[in-house]
Amino acid sequence: MEMEKIFGQHASYQEDKPWFSVLDIILGLSILALLIVFLFISIGYLNKHLKKQNKIHEVVSTNTEILVPIKTITSNSSKIPTKITIAQDKKINLTQNSTVQEAIVTTTQQQNKVTQSLNIQEVIYETLLEEFRNDLPHWLAKIDYTSLTIRFQNPNIFFEVGDSSLNQYYQLILDDFFPRYINKLIKYKSVIEAISIEGHTSSEWRGSVSKNDAYFNNMALSQERTRAVLEYCLLLAPVKSHRNWLRHTLTANGFSSSRLIMEKSSENVEVSRRVEFRIYLFDGG
Q1: Could you report the per-residue pLDDT of 94-121, keeping only the tens digit for each?
Q2: Distance of CA 164 to the CA centre of its chain
Q3: C-alpha–C-alpha distance, residues 133 and 141, integer Å
């Protein structure tokens, strides 16, 4: 009887106790949810990896479109047979990834040359402006940034009308100006292709002559004047040590009335008569 009571109580206890508690059910569902999330993450990662591999394969394949954010590509390489002009943010067809890299390198080099040229131009301009800032008003001269030109306006002050001989006043200006000018430019001789003395006239010519005769007479006059200026400057004693470089760099050019100074659609006769010292940089500067 005692045994039956014991076993009977035990059996009754087992029947009243549930197989799973609420906590067990929550824990099981949580684990199942985590497994499902992990499965989706794995599938997403696998798809992303496959897409990346496909893009890499497309870049190196023939006739694949790629985005090249540059404007102009020019190359002499045999891999790029023609000049390719590309608008910003437009697509082009290139055969291989290596071709793209070479094209970008070529364009970068060209852009660097342009930037370097602009920097040199600015440096030379600032150098000349600092050197001659106080003298320009007295010489009736000015410096043009875009062409690196020192322009002596109204050369009638320096030459007699219709004459190519330098007067004494102009000689004094050149005695002061030219040695200082060359001493500043000699620092940049590696980038200077030429220093041009350029003579310009108005379209007028004294006396009653045709337009053609006036042009030819002024051409001869402008050439004679620039030659006289070149000769005088080259023989100045202070530039003797630079004379060899100047013989290869300094030129004289007469333009007659081909480059008139216009104001309100009319020729400014006085300003059109001028002598200029212009610097030409290598690579089209």
Answers
A1: 455 556 556 555 555 555 554 455 689 9
A2: 41
A3: 10
